[in-house]
Specification:
By secondary structure, the protein is an all-alpha fold. It has one domain. The chain contains 13 helices and no strands. Helix 5 runs parallel beside helix 9, helix 7 runs parallel beside helix 12 and helix 8 packs antiparallel against helix 9.
Length: 298
Amino acid sequence: MTNLLSHPLGQSVVLPLLLVAILAPVLRLAGGSAKGPALAAVAVGAGILAAYVATLGWPPLAPQTASHKLFYLVGAGAGLGLVLDLVRAGRAVVMAALVAFALAGLAWLLGHRLDRLALWPGLPLFVVWAAVLVRLWQVRDQGAVAPAMVVAAASALAGIAILGATALVGQLAAGVAASAGAFALLNWPWPRWRFGNAGVLAAGGALGALASQLVLYTEASRWAIGLAALVFVADLGAQRVRIRGRRPGPVLRPVVVIVLALVPLAAAVAAAVLQSDDEGEYGARTRPALIAERGVAY
């Protein structure tokens, strides 16, 4: 086990996948019929945090870098989402919470650079981050659909980052994909538990933070990251698909969503590769000039 956890694949894929697969059913049983379904989704956030700790260790209590802040954003998202689930918050309250979370998270990541980067690229990042959270919330009750979209988006971010020699962000994104993937498998072929607000804010918070980190502090292709965001409309495309004259049922719907999500995923990775070819060295590495201008990313 020690050897496994010392390998990047074990840290970012095997560990979170196994943890979520074990923890989600345990939390469901521990919470009973009343709280169990809401508690199960907390396992997604736990898997992401476990991958983080295995990769980077425990962050300081006073985080100074974007990577440190990622840990606390995921934890805060899972906690806030669980509270919203347990109190059965209404649509208006949840929408306000999602938008506020994206705004506060991005502002925190920007830190003392907020005044310089708030409009560009801060404003587009906020809009996309909030939109992703809303889209996940809209499909939170559709079994494996929401976590499947998270898997596709996180895989795209991992590919963009790893191609650009930003292995840290790529490894953390892989942890998000593995955590959501385990929850998706637990809810397929038959839906068992909702992704819930806890899953939406934990996974969506991690995706938004990692994408923001790539945009703000590296030269990663913004076109590629924008294409990756199109993963979150795959379920809308699935609604138009007909199999033998009928819409896909609960078993086939997540499969169709994944297949459709492969299109923007592949386009995002292709855009990253094209930038790599154009620039000679793909620019997703942090450079001293960017660090000096925008603050320390790692």
